[in-house]
């Protein structure tokens, strides 16, 4: 719903460090902002926030790219690293720090290097990154093999961030299992 409000910006930091790096830009922004607050410590190191790091490549990959945001980016980071180690693969990982408005030029330049794209998000199938990419696909004809992992249209059990991730099968172990299922893409 917030994406429909003109000039509204949506930030999705993946951990406490990422939040700290994004805050100066958010505070000094003239537009209204919504922040999916994540104050938990992370397992990733982040670059300072700029327009060119609104989309932050956390792991370079070859043929397949996982895209995520918020706390799920941290879980995806662990899962992708474990998957790459155990399967001798090189899946990339992109963390979306600012989901709206999406930096389309940067997004297209990053996904251009991949034939398969897996979006993992702790969101319903309507209104989140899946919807943004579907809209972008209509205007840009992306011609990518997209796969989406999200809540679908099923409500989730409320709780703290880690409990919601685990209950909704968005914890790192569940993500790794989902990547193994999608391995034969």
CATH topology: Rossmann fold
Number of domains: 1
Structural class: alpha/beta
Overall pLDDT score: 92
Q: How many helical stretches?
A: 6
Shape: globular
Beta-strand content: 15-25%
CATH architecture designation:
3-Layer(aba) Sandwich
> Could you give the order of strands across the largest sheet?
3-5-4-7-8
Task: Explain what you see.
This protein has helices at residues 16-27, 71-87, 104-111, 129-140, 161-167, 172-182; strands spanning 9-11, 33-35, 55-59, 64-68, 92-96, 98-100, 116-120, 145-149. It is an alpha/beta fold. It has one domain: Rossmann fold. Helix 2 crosses helix 6. The longest helix is centred in the middle third of the chain and has 17 residues, at 71-87. The radius of gyration is 15 Å and the shape is globular. The N and C termini lie far apart (33 Å).
Which structural traits does this protein have?
single chain; 185 residues; alpha/beta; Rossmann fold; five-stranded mixed β-sheet; three-stranded mixed β-sheet; 6 helices; 8 strands; globular
Short recap of the structure:
This protein is an alpha/beta fold and 185 residues long. The chain has six helices and eight strands.
Secondary-structure map with pairings?
Blueprint (H helix, E strand, L loop, with lengths): L8 E3 L4 H12 L5 E3 L19 E5 L4 E5 L2 H17 L4 E5 L1 E3 L3 H8 L4 E5 L8 H12 L4 E5 L11 H7 L4 H11 L3
Parallel strand pairs: 1-2, 4-5, 4-7, 7-8
Antiparallel strand pairs: 1-6, 3-5
Helix pairs in contact: 2-6
């Amino acid at each position: 719903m917030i994406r429909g409000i003109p000039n509204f910006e949506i930030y999705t930091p993946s951990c406490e460090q990422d939040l700290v790096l994004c805050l100066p830009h958010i505070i000094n922004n003239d537009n209204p902002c919504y922040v999916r607050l994540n104050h938990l410590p992370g397992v990733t190191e982040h670059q300072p926030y700029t327009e060119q790091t609104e989309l932050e490549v956390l792991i370079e990959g070859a043929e397949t790219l996982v895209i995520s945001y918020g706390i799920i980016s941290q879980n995806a980071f662990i899962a992708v690293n474990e998957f790459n180690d155990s399967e001798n693969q090189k899946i990339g990982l992109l963390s979306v720090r600012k989901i709206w408005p999406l930096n389309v030029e940067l997004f297209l330049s990053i996904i251009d290097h991949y034939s398969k794209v897996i979006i993992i998000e702790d969101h319903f199938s309507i209104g989140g990154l899946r919807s943004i990419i579907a809209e972008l696909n209509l205007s840009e004809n992306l011609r990518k093999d997209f796969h989406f992992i999200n809540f679908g249209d099923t409500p989730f059990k409320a709780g703290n961030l880690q409990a919601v991730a685990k209950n909704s099968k968005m914890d790192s172990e569940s993500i790794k299992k989902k990547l193994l299922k999608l391995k034969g893409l």
